[in-house]
Amino acid sequence: MYMSSQQWSVILCPTEADLVTANRLLVYHVPDVLSSLGLSKSQLTASGVVSKNDYDSNIASLSPESNYKIIKALDGKVDAATIVEHYKASQQVIQKNTRQDPFSASQRVFIDHQQTLVQTGPSSPSIRALCVRNLQLSARMLSSSLCF
Prior knowledge:
single chain; mainly alpha; two-stranded parallel ribbon; 8 helices; globular
């Protein structure tokens, strides 16, 4: 495996989540994960869209566990975009949603497989935000490695 040849510790994880640390890559067998969660692939994708991720936040006060329960109750035999629309139309979400178009960025990335290029140049807001995020993640990794 390529990553192993590059000094990465690759651990096959059929169903169990784990903490990712520097130079460690976790590989999941998707059918096992789906079976373990009792979700279809479309439902798993929809869960990724509606739960907090790098592109959008979740609906306030709806945790990943709440999102999982809502999505699991929806028909998993339809496509992910339809599941997200049914999720947004569910009573529990309608009561808590205050945003006009939640999940639009996540849907573009996870469902439509489209991403917007970052503006280039050292003064662009996108580059500054990426630099700040990189510093935050680096500080987090440093502080967590000191705890071991």
